[in-house]
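Researcher: Re-running this chain for the archive, since the previous output was lost when a drive failed. Same request as before.
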Amino acid sequence: MRLPFIFASCCTLLSVCTQAEQPDTRAHQHGVARLELFKLATDLQISFYATGSDILGFEHQPQTQTELDAVKKAKILLAQPDKLFQIAGADCQLKHHQSNLAELQQHTKAEHKHSHDHNHDHDHDHDHDHDHKHAGHSDIEASYQFSCKAVTESVTLKVNLFSLFPDLQQIHSSWITEKGQSAATLTPADRQLSLN
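Model: Regenerated C-alpha cells:
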C-alpha cells in the first residue's frame, strides 16, 4: 500500500516548507517549544520538542533526588497524551508513544552504577576522568501516533501543555494534512489548532 510512502513524503515536505514560513525554532530557546503534526486519512502523528529547562526546570543530567523526581513526573505526564491534547472531530486512539526521558533516566542510572563501580582505591599514573555528565543543554522530545476513526471535516487540537509546564510561553506549531500544510504560534491564551 502506498499510504506509508505518502505519509513519509508529507513529513519531509512539512519540515522543508515550514522552514521558510517560521523562524528556526530548532534552536535552543527557553520558553519556546515546537509541535509538529501530520494527519493523513486515519493516521495522526504529533511530535513535541522543548528545552529541558521548560519541562524539568533544569538542563543538566539529574543529580539530586528532586531532579530525578522531576524527570519521573515529566515522563509520566508526557506518557498521557489525553492530558496533553484534546482532539475534537475524530475518535483517536493512541497506537504508540515515546520520549527521550527514558534515555535520560537510564543514563543517570548508568552513571550512578559507574561511580559505585569505580569507587575503589587504586593508584594510577594518569588522570582517570569519570565525570560523564553532559555539559550542554538537554532537549526533551516526545512523539505520539494515533489511529483515528469517525474523522470529520473539522479536526481541532487543543494543546494543554501550557498549564502542565508553566515555563512554556510559546509553541511554534506546523502541520500537514491531506488538504495542505500550515503553521501557527500557540500561547497560553490561544492554544487551539484547526487541522483543516
